[in-house]
Amino acid sequence: MTKTSFARRFLPLLTASTLGLTACGSSSLVTSSSDAFTVNGKGYSKTELNKVVDVLVTAGQITKQNGTVAKTDITPVLQVMIKYQAYLQFIKKYNLTETAADRAKVLQQASADANFPSYPKPLQDLLVNLNVASLTTSSMKAPSASAIEKLYNSSPASAGVLCLSHILVKTKAQADKALQQLDGGAKFADVAKEKSIEPGAKTSGGSLANGEEACSTLESLQQSFDGDFLVGAIAVKPGVPTGPVKTKFGWHIILSHPYNEVKGSVSSVLSENIGSALLAGFMATSKISLNSIYGTWVGATSKIS
């Protein structure tokens, strides 16, 4: 096993981020200059972050140039720590418990890495904790259907799933006109077939279905969709056409489908990994702020820019 192979097991936990509108995350500054970031008001200090960075430097995972660590190295570390601190709040919200069996399993995996004992103790602890976190979320039991429905109706992103259609046009004026038609009672699919310049809209009616599924996990969309589009999409209330939203592709009107229309797909998509999906949703709807010296936290995409 290579020096980094054990670490790679927690990379899904290390690749988090989120920008937000009021209802779907926060891009506000931290309240204390000593904080690297805050999650729902709970701060994580620059001192603690620097300790993690120093341990990674000692372990040879990242390097210093002229006594400083490059932003490209700091950013993934920050994203890991933000997601882990959100996870700690998430398991409290959902009454999840890290088990001794999971910790023993992780320690057994670590012992298979001949280099693991050479890591600094703080790095060993971090690696173990992140792997335990991954196991804890992956073994989470699904909340009741009514609980998922409540989350979805308050904000689909909070349920970790989006079920979207959109209308794409070239100008804001065209988008405003399409929105007026919808406000006047026109069906979304009909307007999409008539107005949208997206290839395939004439047959799809603007649906952003994932194959046979009307819905996709927020995590998957964060990996593949335009960030500006997602900022708009996670702010949309179910059943209410919203926009215009500007992206590099043009102007969008976005529809998040009502729960009753897509509940089967919501259940199906979330069943793949309910814990991971709900954690992504928790982060997207949490108030996360980042010290400006590190960049800007983008809640919709769970990335630092």
- Spatial strand arrangement across the major sheet: 2-1-10
Helix amount: 40-55%
Separation of the first and last Cα atoms: 33 Å
* Low-pLDDT residue intervals, each spanning 5 or more residues: 1-28
Number of helical stretches of at least 4 residues: 14
**What's the overall average pLDDT, rounded?**
89
Shape: globular
Radius of gyration: 21 Å
What proportion strand? 5-15%
- Summarize the biggest pleated sheet: 3 strands, antiparallel
Structural class: alpha+beta
Number of strands: 12
Question: Would you list the SSEs in sequence order as H and E?
Answer: HHEEHEEHHHHEEHHHEHHEEHHEEE
Tally of discrete structural domains:
2
Features:
14 helices; alpha+beta; globular; 3-stranded antiparallel β-sheet; 48% helix; Chitinase A, domain 3; 2 domains; disordered N terminus; 305 residues; 14% strand
Layout of strands and helices, then pairs:
Blueprint: H1 5-8, H2 11-14, E1 35-39, E2 42-45, H3 46-58, E3 64-65, E4 68-69, H4 71-93, H5 100-111, H6 121-138, H7 145-154, E5 161-162, E6 164-169, H8 172-183, H9 188-195, H10 201-204, E7 216-217, H11 218-224, H12 227-233, E8 242-247, E9 250-256, H13 259-270, H14 274-284, E10 288-290, E11 297-298, E12 303-304
Antiparallel strand pairs: 1-2, 1-10, 3-4, 5-7, 6-9, 8-9, 11-12
Helix pairs in contact: 5-6, 6-14
Explain the overall architecture:
The chain is an alpha+beta fold and 305 residues long. The chain folds into two domains: 5-142 and 278-304, no CATH class; 155-270, Chitinase A, domain 3 (Roll). It is 48% helix and 14% strand. The chain is built from 14 helices and twelve strands. It has helices at residues 5-8, 11-14, 46-58, 71-93, 100-111, 121-138, 145-154, 172-183, 188-195, 201-204, 218-224, 227-233, 259-270, 274-284, and strands spanning 35-39, 42-45, 64-65, 68-69, 161-162, 164-169, 216-217, 242-247, 250-256, 288-290, 297-298, 303-304. The strands form five sheets. A three-stranded antiparallel beta sheet has the order 2-1-10. A three-stranded antiparallel beta sheet has the order 6-9-8, sandwiched between helices. Strands 3-4 form a two-stranded antiparallel sheet. Helix 5 crosses helix 6 (121-138) and helix 6 (121-138) crosses helix 14 (274-284). The longest helix is centred in the N-terminal third of the chain and has 23 residues, at 71-93. The two termini are 33 Å apart. Residues 1-28 have low confidence and may be disordered.
